[in-house]
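hey can u run this one w/ adenosine-5'-diphosphate bound, need the structure tokens asap thx
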Amino acid sequence: MNEEQLQTVATRIVEIIDYAKKHLAHDGSGHGFDHAQRVAHLAQKILLNTKETVDATVVLAACYLHDTIDDKVVADVEGATEDLREFLETQGLSSDQVLEILFIIDNLSFSKQYFGNSLELPLSGQIVQDADRLEALGAMGLMRTAYFGGYSGHPLYDPAIKPKTFTSKAEYRQGTTVINHVYEKLFLLVDMMNTAYGKEEGQRRKAFMEDFLKEFYQEWEI
Ligand code: ADP
Ligand code: NI
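ok here u go:
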């Protein structure tokens, strides 16, 4: 995959990008359009490093759309999924492409995989998954986690509350503290990456978060 081919794909999916923009516009949980766009840009980097044949239209469309049917963003997941399916059917995609995009979005999430409820993703989906997971790491990941924590009413940090090993999605959704989330999810993602780029960039972002935590504890103890 080269830059020129990616550019062609990006121009072919402008209506899909618009759909994402419209549906993510009111998000206040760190899953807004800017997040979707960075996921797409990270996926482009991974695609440029991928030798195998992958349908870049499916990858980029799934990146832009992945949070438009998420339970954190919409109240009615089933309704949103139906709306998305109907929209995709108007986009000149093959029915296999539509199915693949919806399959990827449905099986992408950390919590679904962690609690053993996800199906194995094709390479296209593994790329979207790594791109989305990189967005959960590094400076961006820390800011999004703090933002989500505020949105959910979690404390920033409490030394008396230890990081948890969750046994259900409901418990995971409840969460504990912002700092704990780094141990409860973010660090775990680094070892769950699929692609070479994801693994390498994941380690780089993890090292940054470790430095951040050292500084945070030092300032907390002042
Ligand atoms: P997934 O849907 O892949 O299981 P989430 O949607 O739960 O993952 O998480 C997406 C991002 O939202 C996280 O990377 C994090 O920044 C934020 N987030 C989710 N749950 C929490 C939480 N309990 N505390 C703080 N941030 C959270
Ligand atoms: Ni996401």
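Residues 31, 35, 39, 66-67, 132, 135 surround nickel (II) ion (ligand 2) (CB under 6 Å). anyway lmk if its weird
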